[in-house]
Design goal:
alpha/beta, 2 domains, binds nicotinamide-adenine-dinucleotide, binds 2'deoxy-thymidine-5'-diphospho-alpha-D-glucose
C-alpha cells in the first residue's frame, strides 16, 4: 500500500510515521510536510534511511502540488495530521489556521476524489482531529461522539470546519473516510510552546513557569504513543464513515500538573524537594480559555479493544527523561523564531 501521512515531521505525526514504517514493512509511507516552525525532520532521523519511507516537502494549501504527487505516487490511503495546532498562535493570527486546517484539508479531499475517481475499493481518507471541536465542559460530563460541535477558538473552529468537510465528502461523494477526535497529547518531540514541554524546559532552566489565569482549567492527557496506537487500530479496523473519540481518562488541573512536573524534575535533578515550585508564575489568562476537556473513549475501547498502554506517572517520567536527555533538540527548536514567539506571548503582554 502507498500510504500518505501528512504532518509527519510534527509531534504526533512523527510517532505515527515511525509506528507505520516499523510495523508495516509492506506499506510504503510517504510523509508530506511543509516543515513549518513545528515540523522537524530530526524527529524522524532514525526512520529516514528505511526503504519503505519517503519524505515529500510540500504544502497542503497548494492544490496543484497535491495533484502532482497523487499522480506520481498513486496513494491508496491518507492519514491527515498536518495542521496549525497551537491555540495561542490561532488567537494571535487566525488566518494561517483557516488556510492550512480548512483549505488544506479540502485540497486533500479533492486530490483524493480526483485521483480515485469514484473507484473507492481499498481506499481511505483518515482525518485526525481534536476534542476541542466539542467546546468546553463544566465540572461534570464527558465528550462523546454525539456531543454537538461548539468550537470556541480560531484553532478549534478551523478543526471543526475541517471535520465537517471530511464528513461532507463522505456523504456527498461517497469518499471512504474515518475520523478521530483526541484529547491533549504529551510525550517526546512535543514543541515547547505547549504546556508540558514548555514547563519542563523552563523548570530545567530555572525560568518562570507561566500558568494562565488561576491554573484551574482541566485537560485530559494521553501519551502520544497511545494516540499513535489508536490511529493504527482505527485505520485498520475502524468502521468507514465513523468517528472515534480518543482520550486518556486522565484529567488534570493545570496547576496540579505543573506542580507535579516541578516535583518530578526536582527529584531527577537532585534539587531540594519542592524548590522548583517557586518558579510557578500566574500570568494573564488565554482569551476565551476553555475550562475543561474530558473524553469518553468507550466506543474505541469496546469496538476495537484499544486502551492506554502507559499510566500517566510512567508517561510523564519517560517524557521528562527524554527532554532532559535531548539538549540538542531543545537548543535547535528554541532558537531564532521561538525566542520571538516567546517574547511576544509571555513578555510583551
Ligand atoms: P504539530 O504542530 O506538532 O505538527 C504539525 C505538522 O504539520 C508540522 O510538521 C508542520 O510542519 C505540518 N504542517 C503545518 N502546516 C502545513 C501545511 N500547510 N502543509 C503541510 N504540512 C504542514 O501538531 P501536532 O500536535 O502533532 O498535531 C497533529 C494533528 O493532531 C493536528 O491535526 C492536530 O489538530 C491534531 N491533534 C493534536 C493534539 C495534541 O494534543 N497535540 C490532540 C488532538 C489532535
Ligand atoms: O485537546 C486537544 C488539543 O490539546 C489539541 O487539539 C491542540 O493541538 C493542543 O495544542 C492542545 O491544546 P491546549 O490548548 O489544551 O494545549 P496547551 O498545551 O496549549 O495548553 C494546555 C493548558 O495549559 C491550557 O489550559 C492552557 C494552559 N497553559 C498553556 C500554556 C502554553 C498555561 O497555563 N500556560 C502556558 O504557557
Amino acid at each position: 500500500m502507498n500510504l500518505l501521512i501528512t504532518g509527519g515531521a510534527g509531534f504526533i505525526g512523527s510517532h505515527v510515521v515511525r509506528l507505520f514504517v516499523e510495523a508495516y514493512p509492506n506499506y510504503h509511507v510517504f510523509n508530506l510536510d511543509a516543515l513549518t516552525y513545528a515540523g522537524n525532520l530530526q524527529n524522524l532521523s532514525d526512520v529516514e534511511g528505511k526503504p519503505n519511507y519517503t519524505f515529500l516537502k510540500g504544502d497542503i494549501t497548494e492544490a496543484a502540488f497535491l495533484e502532482q504527487i497523487f499522480r506520481a505516487h498513486k496513494f491508496e490511503a491518507v492519514i491527515h495530521l498536518a495542521a496549525e495546532s497551537h491555540v495561542d498562535r490561532s488567537i494571535a493570527g487566525p488566518m494561517a489556521f483557516v488556510q492550512t486546517n480548512v483549505l488544506g484539508t479540502v485540497n486533500l479531499l479533492e486530490a483524493c476524489r480526483r485521483a480515485w475517481a469514484g473507484d473507492y475499493a481499498g481506499k481511505l481518507f483518515y482525518h485526525v482531529s481534536t476534542d476541542e471541536v466539542y467546546g468546553s465542559l463544566g465540572e461534570e460530563g464527558l465528550f462523546t461522539e454525539e456531543t454537538p460541535y461548539d468550537p470556541r477558538s480560531p484553532y478549534s473552529a478551523s478543526k471543526a470546519a475541517s471535520d465537517h468537510f471530511v464528513r461532507a465528502w463522505h456523504h456527498t461523494y461517497g469518499l471512504p473516510v474515518k475520523l478521530s477526535n483526541c484529547s491533549n497529547n504529551y510525550g517526546p518531540n512535543h514543541f515547547p510552546e505547549k504546556l508540558i514541554p514548555l514547563a519542563i524546559h523552563n523548570i530545567k532552566n530555572g525560568k518562570p513557569v507561566p500558568v494562565y489565569g488561576k491554573g484551574e482549567n482541566v485537560r485530559d492527557w494521553l501519551y502520544v504513543l497511545d494516540h499513535a496506537r489508536a490511529i493504527d487500530s482505527i485505520f485498520h479496523r475502524g468502521r468507514v464513515g465513523e468517528t472515534y473519540n480518543v482520550g486518556g481518562v486522565n484529567e488534570w488541573r493545570n496547576l496540579d500538573l505543573v506542580e507535579l512536573l516541578c516535583d518530578v524534575i526536582d527529584e531527577k535533578l537532585g534539587r531540594e524537594p519542592g524548590s522548583s515550585r517557586k518558579l510557578i508564575t500566574f500570568v494573564k489568562d488565554r482569551a476565551g480559555h476553555d475550562a475543561r476537556y474530558a473524553i469518553d473513549s468507550s466506543k474505541l475501547m469496546n469496538e476495537l479493544g484499544w486502551k492506554p498502554s502507559v499510566t500517566f506517572e510512567e508517561g510523564l517520567r519517560k517524557t521528562v527523561d527524554w527532554y532532559l536527555a535531548s539538549e540538542q533538540w531543545l537548543e535547535e527548536v528554541t532558537s531564532g523564531h521561538y525566542r520571538d514567539y516567546y517574547r511576544k506571548q509571555y513578555e510583551e503582554r
